[in-house]
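Weekly modeling sync, notes
Attendees: S.R. (lead), two postdocs, one rotation student

Agenda item 3: backlog of single-chain predictions. S.R. asked that every request posted to the team notebook include the full sequence so nobody has to chase files. The rotation student volunteered to paste the first one in as an example of the format we agreed on. Action items at the bottom.

Example entry:
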Amino acid sequence: MKYIRTYHLPWSQGSTSDDKTLKDTTHFKDKDVIATLKMDGENTGFTKHNIHARSLDSKDHPSRHWVKGLWGNIKCDIPENLKFYGENLAAKHSILYKNLDTYLYIFAILDLETNTFLSWESVKEWCYLLNLETVPILYEGKWNEEIIKSIYREYDINGNIMEGYVVRNKESFKYEDSSTNLAKFVRKNHVTSASHWMYDKIVYNELIKMKEAYFIPHCDDYCGMGRFNYTCPYCNKNVDDYDIWYEQDNINETSGHQILCESCKHNLKIVYKNYTFYVK
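Predicted structure, as returned to the notebook:
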């Protein structure tokens, strides 16, 4: 099943004659919503048994190999009834991305048995279990049109051009009810190239620099003290940090912990993936 066609919000700047636009947003009133970063990649769907671009009969392309490799590592753990939808950001389309955590960002999961998009909490839980990234969240809370309108910026927090954002009902909803639970804002003149990215020379987006790191106990008796050892991915200096030893349990349960490299003063983040600590 192809991913649904998302309607534009009434104030979206990048709608074309082929797009559908909401007349108003009254159906979002009083709903808990999330707004996520709209990313300029290729819509990709996958189940336990197959993976494809937006078109179900999409042919092979080198920019799809990385995502196919990732899918090959996790497909055995995907339930029969779930279909994941994400953005493949391996190749540059109209925006060249830098500092990406991954080339695949998940934005929706469909229960094929009930034809229902899972709640955002369920999406996050499944992504955590399969070690997948979700699209970055820009706002979470009750629908507030003024706040939603103010989300768009020229650049995102990583310094990349911002294509736009997507707003969805935080709770689950039926596939056929998507037009009243999901909408997007796209920047003006988003597509600037006259040719299609698939037929141009491939330019790959850039992944963030990341290196393994270690929490090392002070002694074999585990006296409750220790150090965090890492090599800065920017200046390559090896550092022992004794101030964040007590944060390791929190890093296991959260999205990371911010630190500052003592050498180059670069802002770093400690993350925990696949039972391993990293700094990036």
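Discussion: group reviewed the output briefly. Helices lie at 65-74, 120-130, 145-149, 248-253.
Action items: rotation student to repeat for the remaining queue; S.R. to check formatting next week.
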